[in-house]
Amino acid sequence: MKKIFYLIIIFAVNVSFGQDYSSVIKSYLQQNRTQFSLQQQDISDISIASQGSSKTMNVHNVYVEQRHQGIKVFNSVSPFVIKDGAVLNAKLSFTENVAAKVNSKTPSISAVMAISKAANALGLDNPSNLNLVETVSDTRYIFSNGNISLENIPVELVYQKMDDTGALKLAWDLSIYLLDASHYYSVRIDALTGNLLDSHDWVVSCNFEGSHSHTNTGSLLFADTKVENASRTLGDGASYRVFALPLIAPNDGADQIVSDPSDPVASPFGWHDWDGVAGPEFTETKGNNVLANEDRNGNNGNGATAEGGPTLTFDFPYNLPQTPVNFLDAAITNLFYMNNMIHDILYHYGFDEESGNFQKNNYGNPGNGNDFVVADAQDGSGMNNANFGTPPDGGAPRMQMYLWNAPGKILGTFLTVNNGPLAGVYYAADSNFAPPLPVSPLTAELEVISDSSGDPHDGCNTITNGADLNGKIVVIRRGTCAYNIKTLAAQNAGAIAVIVVNDVPGDPLAMGGNGSGITIPAVMVYQSDGEALISSILNGDTINATLEDDGSGNDPFQRDGDLDNVIIGHEYGHGVSNRLTGGPSQAGCLQNEEQMGEGWSDYIGLMLTMKVGDSRNDYRGIGTYALGEGIGGRGLRTKYYNTDFAVNDFTYNSIKTQAVPHGIGSVWATMLWDLTWDLIDRYGFDPDVKNGTGGNNIALQLVMDGMKLQPCSPGFVDGRDAILEADQLLYGGVNRCLIWRAFAKRGLGENAIQGNTNSRADGTENFDVPAGCELGVSDNDANGINFIIYPNPSNGELSIQSRMDVGEAAISIFDMNGRKVFNQTVELRQSATINASGLTSGIYLMQIDSAERSQTTKLIIN
Description:
This protein is 19% helix and 23% strand. The protein is built from 13 helices and 36 strands.
């Protein structure tokens, strides 16, 4: 008897926009089923959770969930990359042999009972007045908040994978947002027994960790975004007194007024709009991207906003240092500004509406709206912390910013240079051995000490310019001898004060030692500031300066996290990584132990505050202002962010000993920081964070797109591979070997083994790079790459980015028979575009020739 088996694939598309890629994905899964070790039943019932187009990579990102008999497998969402109607790549999180692993398809307890069981497991009061709000489907319901949640409670029948056995247990998946907003629990309750199977928190906090007692439009990086009507180019004329990016915080520079900073593409109607019509709806710190208000009583109510009046002028004084409540309107303004700036900047890197960004009104673009950030300033529900709660797309996130006790050494603006190109106010640390700085200004010319030691300016040997020091403020390098010795030597030569120059990029130290016999004050300044003074003086400049106690060095006041731009960037980063990993309809794909959420958050905070003149060997910390440190402080992490192994020796194996999750994230951010500086070394630094073309812009784009490409519950190897894939899609893989070398340096080389991403202990580090990627080998040497051509593969519309201004360049394209099929001359100063769309699909060679440089690159035309 002939048996005929019919394949029935049930494909439910849960999205209401975009092309239906079901047939493409079904075909791909069918063709590759054996490769993924899946049975027919494992792919017979799947659904699209979300999808979107990536303008940067010129692909469609489709996120697919596995289901069994109409019930989805929790956190099985898998990213598919689709280009020109075909699947380029997929990273599956499906369970194999699913039918043999499920325990039931019929629940024994109701959805209502599941809510009560969850409340009991979480230690909450029993829900009251719990009513059914909506029946979404036979397995999905929405209930009222039951007086235990800030939001209505959605409940859905799912299969929960049990890590210990691999079994799939029928469960009710629900979320409860605690009334104090401290936790937003996503919970799985066993649908047969009512037991708690799994829970995680959508609120991610940036707690103290360890000891802290130490001290250009048209960019080629982005797709062209067209303005569809004249109103989209209008700003709203608002102005804000803030610590403007790229400032880290008040310890990095003074507050200033910024005028109309909203981006015409990301926020086309300004920051105070809701209706998508020209003209603001609000004159307060409220708008399409964020509502910033105070929550000093910690009740998550309708706290006061800062009011800008009809002219939208948010000019409130800070007058630091003082008690934070005295500058509450200013703090709210800075919080509003930063949330909007991060929204607008990251929009250009692909965190837009269909990728799940945070907006009330999506202005007709795909994705769910009504999810602007609610940002609580000076939140009274906690201290020494900040957090960000991220529900799936369409649910409003909440950022809570707290006050900090600032246990670190407070630097003061003790030094003022009164003349010349270095004129300005400088941070310094007063010593613990010399008399304190006078309250009355101490003004004199600066002079650099000279002595007979190996370093003639560290004051560690016999002074050779003693006569020049009389009556001067003497500048001395830190060196190797005791602070009190060099200070006493300068005093004996007639100095009236001493400025010690730090010899590392970290914060100045409160110098200690025996102060016997010392009668003049001594302070330490940053290495970069002090070395600039030394160079200027040795070049013959006369510099007049003032030392005085401005009172800030004994700041008794709490620090306000609303002024720490790095912490705000970090918290917002949690929303970004949670929405991009697994697609915007998910919020739980970063709950595994090896996940890198804290790392992406640190990285975003660092990237937003990079400046011209920064160095790969600078000491960068997280939360330095909140902890009472200067910009060279270590902040909340156990190591500085620095590419020098002598300062930060993290490798992949370090995640086995670092704390979860912040320590693990710090290792990942260290790798991304190395990669960023390698790209800056190749392409330079561009201060235009939105539209620049520097290595910093390229790095941020790769990291953002990498999050879209990686699977749910990623580990370090997944994250590395996603960045490599992003480089292939964005730039034709031109940075492949640079990326490999950056990761291999930290033990995430070609043969690194990730193990189970639910464990941080089973990975194996490796420092190998693929053959041909060794430094100086083939065309992967940084000096050999002059031009980047992308996208590659391409439809013929190509962008060319040049590392330098080469002037006129000839662009020639040859087919594989050596025939020239395209020729054009362009001005290639920084970038240029060509249109070779007339070429048929195939493989070509593109040759770029300028007067001094040339390069040949393989080109694929689709």
